[in-house]
Amino acid sequence: MKIFKGLAVASAMMAGTAGLAQEQFITIGTGGQTGVYFVVGQSICRLVNRGTADHNLKCTAPSTGGSIANINAIKAGDMDMGVAQSDWQFHGYNGTSKFEDDGAFENMRAVFSVHGEPFTVIARADAGIATFDDLKGKRVNVGNPGSGQLATMEVVLDAKGWSMDDFALASELKPAEQAAALGDNKVDAIIYTVGHPNGSIQEAVSTVDAVMVPVTGAEIDALIADNPFYAAAKIPGGMYEGSPEDTATFGVKATFVTSSDVDDEVVYQVVKAVFDNFDRFKRLHPAFENLTEEEMISGGLSAPLHDGAVRYYKERGWM
Ligand code: GLU
Q1: 93-145: per-residue pLDDT in tens?
Q2: What share of the chain in percent tops pLDDT 90?
Q3: Which of 138, 224, 239, 279 is 20 to 30 A (C-alpha) from 154?
Q4: What is the C-alpha separation between 23 and 143, in angstroms, rounded?
Q5: With a 6 A CB cut-off, is 64 part of the ligand 1 pocket?
Q6: Are residues 111 and 193 in the same domain?
Q7: How many domains does the chain have?
């Protein structure tokens, strides 16, 4: 779906006009329809598409499996941009962890970071799960293939010396299905690396008595100490029914990434659409409320910034 139009861009610049000479379509990889990535992608596209008459870009943001699926699709040239957890941006760029066999995706480029994503575990209140260790022997939805949560869950299990066999059931339902599975007593707990507050978890805790489970301990402390992309995080008490106290866990950041193969002018226009309309963008989801430009262009990014993004950030005097 990637359309490379260096010549079109050059001629637009020579004519002194902004934007692209010919209409171009860009695709942004998101996540499940009930998650926050989907809102990130839809929001970016909405802002981009308001300016199509000026810059000739048309943007779509379909639902996908999540972080790992998005990075792979960008690498394959099937998508132009996508949302990915900061841990998987790091590993994708460096060819480490889950990406070791694929090798480094050297052309990966960071654009900006978005909201924080605590690693979130929610259990049925009747399942007798008060800590992460209580998940042993239980039925757990560990995340759909291609998602960041499944990949990060594997990291946590590795750190603890566990495997999927330590669960009575390790199901791989999508985010849209897992809330219902918890309510229907098909699983005891669900995992989601996601921005808060979000509708999917609200749905889960309103259909059944459920509790947020802390993810803490020596192995988690070590993960945070050893990896720049992990940080201590908490899910604020009172945000969800059944969890009046803060829940301690660790977290990552949602980040927006692309490839150096994507035209500078395209990335410039996308970034401009977001930051020229930043107040509007922040109103599109409660998880965006506390975003700041300064943090977004530095925090959680390990791949180099795309040149088109750098151009805009310099214009604004941010770099
Ligand atoms: N963090 C999840 C992932 O990487 C997606 C969360 C969301 O859709 O908001 O797959």
Answers
A1: 999 999 999 999 999 999 999 999 999 999 999 999 999 999 999 999 999 99
A2: 91
A3: 239
A4: 37
A5: no
A6: no
A7: 2
Going by CA atoms, what residue is nearest to atom 8 of ligand 1?
Answer: 35
Q: Residue 12 pLDDT more than 60? A: no
What are residue 95's phi and psi, to 5 degrees?
65, 40
Ligand 1 center to 316 CA (angstroms):
30
Q: Which of 173, 191, 194, 201 to mutate to test the pocket of ligand 1 (most atoms within 8 A of CB)?
A: 194
Amino acid at 98: K
Buried b (16+ CB within 10 A) or exposed e, 180-203: ebbbeeebbbbbbbbbbbbebbbb
Instruction: Give residue 147 CA to ligand 1 midpoint distance, Å.
Output: 6
Q: How confident is the model at residue 18 (pLDDT cuts 50, 70, 90)?
A: low
CA of 79 to the centre of ligand 1 (A): 17
Cα(23) to centroid(ligand 1), Å: 30
pLDDT at 42: 98
Q: Which range of residues forms the domain containing residue 286?
A: 2-116+253-315
Do 177 and 151 belong together in one domain?
Answer: yes
How far apart are the C-alpha atoms of 257 and 191, rounded to whole Å?
A: 24
pLDDT at 21: 84
pLDDT at 6: 44
Residue 194 belongs to domain with CATH number? 3.40.190.10
